[in-house]
């Protein structure tokens, strides 16, 4: 309950605009209890992000499970395997961010403020998940499946802001296109699949990165 209350206040006001008093009021607890368990406001903020990071790590771990055999040096990576992974990753990230709008707002605050707050706690968030994918992406490069040899971790993490920016802009798009029901379930699925095509076409080389009549 405390972390959910903290997440709501941080999402509304950003880190700098949030006070421990406001979080205590939102949570219905005494401020001294928050200091006892979390130390200070930054400690609370850290735990809010760690909770989200843990959920996303669990999500990605399930996706990585399908790649374990591919990381075997004796196994040749196929284009359909890379495409399936990228598709599943974009879909999962889009759905997670859509279902967690408060986290998305916190990320928007961080971007607006140059990630200054996150920089103070970044060491507590090692990129373990992305490091696990390095052998997979090395094989993808060796097989000629990737358009670029740009840093794999950056290519992968760019999927988050791609989904995040669309969802953050959705209220604006809805105002600009009032006759379109962009927030309907069917339109969100359509958008998600467009972003899948966008990422796959941008990352993969050859026919696998191009939408065919069969995919349409």
TrEMBL record:
SUPFAM superfamilies: Homeodomain-like, Tetracyclin repressor-like, C-terminal domain
InterPro entries given in the database record: Homeodomain-like_sf, HTH-type_TetR-like_transc_reg, HTH_TetR, NicS_C, Tet_transcr_reg_TetR-rel_C_sf
Regions recorded as binding DNA: 19-38
Pfam families xrefs: TetR_C_29 (PF17938), TetR_N (PF00440)
Keyword DNA-binding: yes
Gene Ontology process terms (BP): regulation of DNA-templated transcription
GO molecular function terms listed in the Swiss-Prot or TrEMBL record: DNA binding
Keyword vocabulary terms for this entry: DNA-binding
Gene3D superfamilies found in the cross-reference section: Tetracycline Repressor, domain 2
Protein name: HTH tetR-type domain-containing protein
Residue stretches making up the HTH tetR-type domain: 1-56
